[in-house]
Amino acid sequence: MQSNVASGVPTGVQWRMVLILCLVNAVAFIDRNVLPLLVQPIKRDLSITDTEMSFLIGAAFVLPYFFITPLVGSLVDKISRRKILATGITFWGAATMFCGAFVNYTTLFVGRLGVATGETVSGPAALSLIRDVFDAEFRGRAIGVWSMGASVGGGLALLGGGAILLLVGDSVGSFHGWQVVLITCGLLSLPIAALVYTFPEPKRRPSATGQEATVRQAFDDLRSRWMIFVPLFMANGATIMLLVGYSSWVPAFLGRTWHIPPSQIGFALGLIILFLSTAGQFLAGFAVDFALKRLGKPGVPLVGAIGCVLIAIPTVLAPFSNSIILTWTMLALFNLLASALFTVGTTTMVHVSPSTTIGRISGIHFSWVGITGYALAPTFVAVLADKWFGGTPDALVYALAAAGGTLAAVGGLSLIIVFWQLKRTSAEVMTAEVKYAG
User: Fold this and answer.
1) Is the pTM of the predicted complex or chain greater than 0.90?
2) What does 371-401 look like in DSSP terms, one character per residue?
3) Is 298 helix (H, G, I), strand (E, B) or coil?
4) Quick one: CA torsion of 57, 322, 152, 148, rounded to 10 degrees?
5) Cα angle 160-238-141, degrees, rounded to a multiple of 5
6) 8: alpha, beta or left? (left if phi > 0; alpha if psi -120 to 50)
7) Rounded to whole angstroms, what are the CA distances from 411 to 230, 269, 405, 406?
8) Which of 21, 206, 410, 431 could form a disulfide with 238 if both were Cys (CB 3.0 to 4.6 A apart)?
9) What span, in angstroms and rounded, lies between the C-alpha atoms of 161 and 159?
10) 426 CB-side CA count, 13 A
11) How far apart are CA 128 and CA 358, in angstroms?
């Protein structure tokens, strides 16, 4: 069943679709983000280093995101997005359970590859659906609600994971506590696959040329506007590295510096992410729609550039705080702003991408942010701590501040370039229209 392309104020059915996509995003991030909470017990039981642990958190995502996401983007532009989502959810849920079934570094790495493979479908399919269903003036809010799923999932992963660890302790029978957490998270994902069939598959917005989009057309779209897409990809890569790199090592930082047990870290961080990160994404949706209405497309990346300036403050201050209260306050502010930056960057990408190639372009986009965020970011922080700052007890403190401050600056400068390029393009279009009218 297919619904008509949306026009005007969204209906309840359309918002229900977004809420389901938010839930899909949530279960993806539960399975993806529970691992940072388990760093200490996994390191203990497998006798591995911080850098080896970072490969499980991030590098295991690099091959699927590099090779599979562009292919998924092509499928998204051609076949039912509901079928793609249902298949992906089932696959990553099963892979998460596989991760918890074995006490072996190799099998855990293979399982993480499977989680990443399944999750490659989530972003391109969701953005393609939103692009077809919502008119431009409502897309920011729709993407904001969808993005909230990442924070809901991340928060529930920490809260639920911490609760399970507190309940079962180090082991249950022949299973370690962290294995029970992973198996439970995988099981929770499976029923969500059926929910994507409860909303209709929307019709695709027609191509301006009337022809079916191709991979070559997607690359032509990117190449023809490379002065916009290159800095936009740089900005989104830097901000996702900031979010993931920081979040991946904050639990370990809190445990080492403030000697807080994992269950308490999971509870506190879970509440922060669940409430403040979701608030940041929700408010960012309204902010970009307001900026679009007042300033046009250039206003959207401008919101992100301002956010990058603001986030540099808690990013640098949190690791060096001499008070646990100040530390938690800075981490709360960081999560509020970091989640908003993801929404702004994704919305900008959707606004500048044609409807007919949104699946392919978003596939390339998520491949890029997957590699930079989930493969490079955790290892970037770990290598800084181990190599640049000498692996001392305070090395992680300096690594978090240095990586965070640098990435915030790169993201902000890149978004300013996107702002100026969109502003220049808009001015050229207006000039051409005036000449044509004359």
Assistant:
1) no
2) IIIIIIHHHHHHHIIIIISTT-TTHHHHHHH
3) coil
4) -100
5) 65
6) left
7) 12, 24, 10, 9
8) 410
9) 6
10) 13
11) 6
DSSP alpha helices (H): ranges in 169-225? 177-189, 192-195, 215-224
CA distance 154 to 176: 22
Q: How many residues are there in the chain?
A: 438
CB 288 within 8 A of CB 389: no
3-state helix, strand, coil in the chain (%, to 5): 85, 0, 15
Over residues 339-376, the pLDDT tens digits come to 999 899 999 999 998 877 787 888 888 888 878 887 78
Helix (H, G, I), strand (E, B) or coil at 167: helix
pLDDT in tens, 196-229: 999 988 887 765 444 455 566 677 778 888 999 9
Largest CA-CA distance found in the chain, in angstroms, rounded: 81
Cα separation, 174 vs 297, whole angstroms: 56
Phi, psi of 176 (to 5 degrees): -70, 160
Distance, in Å, from the CA atom of 49 to the CA atom of 44, rounded to the nearest integer, reads: 9
Structure tokens at 302: 């401008």
Element (H, E) at 295: helix 278-295
The H or E element containing residue 172 is strand 171-172
| CA–CA distances in Å: residue 33 to residues 81, 145, 158, 337 | 24, 19, 8, 18
Extract the tokens encoding 402: 């240095």
Residue 230 CB partners (closer than 8 Å, separation 6+): none
Contacting residues for 12 by C-beta, under 8 A, at least 6 apart: none
Residue ranges and CATH numbers for the domains of the chain are 9-203+214-437 (1.20.1250.20)
Among all chains, which residue has been given the structure tokens 């408010």?
283
pLDDT digits (tens, 9 = 90+) for 114-161: 998 999 899 899 999 998 899 989 999 999 999 999 888 888 887 888
From the number of C-beta atoms within 10 Å of its C-beta (0-12, 13-18, 19+), residue 179 rates as buried
Are residues 25 and 150 in contact, defined by beta-carbon separation less than 8 angstroms? yes
Structure-token pair, residue 246: 């920081």
Residue 438 per-residue DSSP state: -
Nearest to 65 by CA among 365, 359, 341, 358: 365
Amino acid at position 150, single letter: A
What CA–CA distances, in Å, run from 288 to 152, 216, 235, 303? Answer: 21, 30, 16, 7
